[in-house]
Amino acid sequence: MISLPIMSGPLGLSGISLGNGNQVIEHFDGSKWNLFPGPNFQSTDQPALESLTAVSPSDIWAAGFILTNNGQSLFPLFEHFDGTSWKAFETFDQGAAIYGVSAAATNDVWAVGTLAFGATVIEHFNGSAWSVVSSPSPGLGEDVLTGVTALAPNNAWAVGFYAKDVNTDRPTKTLIEHWDGSNWKVVSSPNIGPHSVYQSNHLWGVTKVSANDVWAFGDYYAADGSGQIFTLVLHWDGISWKIVPSPSPANSNARVDILFGGTVIPQGNLWLVGNEFGRTLVLNATGQ
After folding, report:
1. CA angle 3, 68, 25 (to 5 degrees)
2. Which domains does the chain have, with CATH numbers?
3. What pLDDT does 145 receive?
4. What does each C-alpha distance from 215 to 73, 156, 198, 249, 271 come to in angstroms?
5. Three-class SS of residue 169?
6. Which pTM does this prediction carry?
7. What is the tens place of the pLDDT at every residue in 15-31?
8. Rounded CA gap, 186 and 8, in Å?
């Protein structure tokens, strides 16, 4: 989910090619973007932030993962902004990485990710501490949750992808899970094909307009093994998930179109962003 008031900002990581990745936080003051200091870590730690959500200008969460012990240990990373500074929270779920975070309230924050790509991971913040919540892992070789959107204490959606086959040439399929206030359950979601082992489907994020108007987005691969990638958009209408046709522009003879982020500003004005063969890709739909 993307939810950015004026006191929040973009985030990510830097220095990947140098082997010493570090997190980046930026802040928009109404006229320009500036780097904003995050928590202090040991010089050998490699923190990376993957997602951001905000309850208010003084209640913002960022989440990702951190490599410690000279790159030998991986842990989820949660950071909180209280209006003045960022603070890192300890977590003990070793081997897990967080890719999405979303807050419905100060005491209702969800984060999703994966445990070594072999199992889904979902954690919840109740206002005082983060804890792991049981979640389904329907695959036999790959189970990854990449995005989450929280609507109410009994309503949250998580998306990603999974693979039923442990073989390396298997296609992945969309994975959508729903929180009903008691449990996370897999909800049936459509795919393009797969018509071959090449035609994987992925969901990279999810955003909502309302409880009966939720959007998930990502990509799918061509069935012929050419490596061409097309945008994938799914919509929840309160009853079921359906595929919605979405543009996939071609750049020269190649097509690599992936949707990574989305938001609704204001209600009914849907924006999806991603990559189009090395260039930015932005899709907009109004009147939803």
Report:
1. 30
2. 11-286 (2.120.10.10)
3. 98
4. 34, 12, 25, 20, 10
5. coil
6. 0.91
7. 433 344 579 999 999 99
8. 32
Type of residue found at 250:
A
What tokens were used for 240? 């079921």
What's the rounded Cα separation, in Å, for the pair 271 and 215? 10
Strands (E), 57-200: 59-68, 73-81, 86-89, 96-105, 108-115, 119-125, 130-133, 142-152, 155-163, 173-179, 184-186
Minimum mean pLDDT range among 29-38, 100-109, 151-160 = 29-38
Residue 26, classed as helix, strand or coil, is strand
**What is residue 274's predicted lDDT score, i.e. its pLDDT?**
96
What are 110-151's pLDDT values in tens digits? 999 999 888 999 999 999 999 999 999 999 889 999 999 999
Contacts of residue 123, defined as CB under 8 A and 6 or more positions apart, other chains included, come to: 76, 91, 93, 98, 110, 111, 112, 130, 131, 132, 133
Measured between alpha carbons, how far is 260 from 263 in angstroms, rounded to an integer?
A: 11
